[in-house]
């Protein structure tokens, strides 16, 4: 017997819900998959849209539409596991969902095979390995005013708060271990620096890992990024397999802007982080991101 139940809501401006009716429809379900998010019909350029959270194609909040969170709370009260699959073209704030739901899958805007791809991931036929290309904030209160173009506090490079999901974040059905981070060449200004790290699949399934390299200028003063992504490599590893990954950092990648807005590389300590995500404190402490200090020597070099 087909025990699937599909609850469909249209794009009406006002949606009312009967909680008792909804709970009755899902009472025999083993799990609930909630397809939510937003739509290209709501966000875009100069659109004739005026609904809560959207105005003229702009978003007045980065939150998930409230009616969806309300429905998710009803479904969550059923005691059934609820998986949220997000359709969106930009970052969404889902703090309640992140705290209460066992899984969130961000699928962006899919094509005609989006449903098949989503099912493959949910049923374990495909091991996902996507990484967020933007920061997902907890709410717009973590962002400066829209008309503030100073970039202070914006993007993963300057944001000092705790994001909901950081730039570079992603999950897998397997696990990976990093070890043996090495600096392979003498760090001299004006010359490339080579580094390597070992990556091992420590889980029971084959999968992709996205090895991310970030650079931080230790002790630098002025307006300096907290860290910046300077390289990444996608690996596919069988269970138990190990691979050594090498990166070559150019003088430009080890440089920064001075007080005169000139890009320079100069003697000093540059920290290199390699792992499965950003060098945030918990990840470094847990060993998911490794750190090496590169002590650059040599004369100051101006980068064209």
TrEMBL record:
Q: Which SMART domains match?
A: Fn3_like
Task: Could you list this entry's UniProt keywords, alphabetically sorted.
Answer: Hydrolase
Q: Which GO terms describe its biological process?
A: arabinan catabolic process; xylan catabolic process
What domain of life?
Bacteria
Pfam families per UniProt: Fn3-like (PF14310), Glyco_hydro_3_C (PF01915)
Q: Which family does it belong to?
A: Belongs to the glycosyl hydrolase 3 family.
Q: What is this protein called?
A: Fibronectin type III-like domain-containing protein
């Amino acid at each position: 017997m087909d025990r699937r139940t599909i609850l469909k809501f249209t794009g009406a401006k006002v949606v009312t819900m009967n909680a008792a009716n909804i709970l009755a429809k899902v009472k025999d379900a083993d799990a609930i998959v909630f397809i939510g998010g937003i739509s290209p019909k709501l966000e875009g350029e100069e659109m004739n849209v005026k609904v809560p959270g959207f105005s003229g194609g702009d978003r007045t909040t980065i939150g998930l539409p409230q009616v969806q969170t309300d429905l998710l709370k009803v479904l969550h009260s059923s005691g059934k596991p609820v998986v949220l699959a997000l359709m969106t073209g930009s970052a969404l704030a889902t703090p309640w969902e992140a705290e209460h739901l066992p899984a969130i899958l961000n699928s962006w805007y899919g094509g005609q095979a989006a449903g098949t791809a989503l099912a493959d991931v949910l049923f374990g036929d495909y091991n996902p390995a996507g990484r967020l290309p933007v920061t997902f904030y907890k709410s717009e209160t973590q962002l400066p005013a829209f008309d503030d173009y100073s970039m202070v506090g914006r993007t993963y490079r300057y944001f000092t708060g705790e994001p909901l999901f950081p730039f570079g974040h992603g999950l897998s059905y397997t696990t990976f271990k990093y070890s043996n981070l090495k600096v392979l060449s003498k760090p001299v200004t004006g010359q490339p620096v080579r580094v390597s790290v070992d990556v091992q699949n420590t889980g029971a399934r084959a999968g992709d890992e996205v090895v991310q390299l970030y650079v931080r200028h230790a002790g630098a003063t002025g307006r300096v990024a907290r860290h910046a992504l300077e390289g990444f490599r996608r690996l596919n590893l069988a269970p138990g397999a190990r691979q050594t990954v090498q990166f070559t950092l150019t003088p430009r990648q080890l440089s920064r802007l001075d007080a005169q807005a000139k890009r320079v590389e100069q003697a000093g300590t540059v920290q290199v982080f390699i792992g499965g995500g950003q060098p945030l404190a918990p990840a470094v402490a847990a060993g998911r991101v490794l750190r090496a200090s590169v002590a650059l020597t040599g004369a100051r070099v101006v980068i064209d």
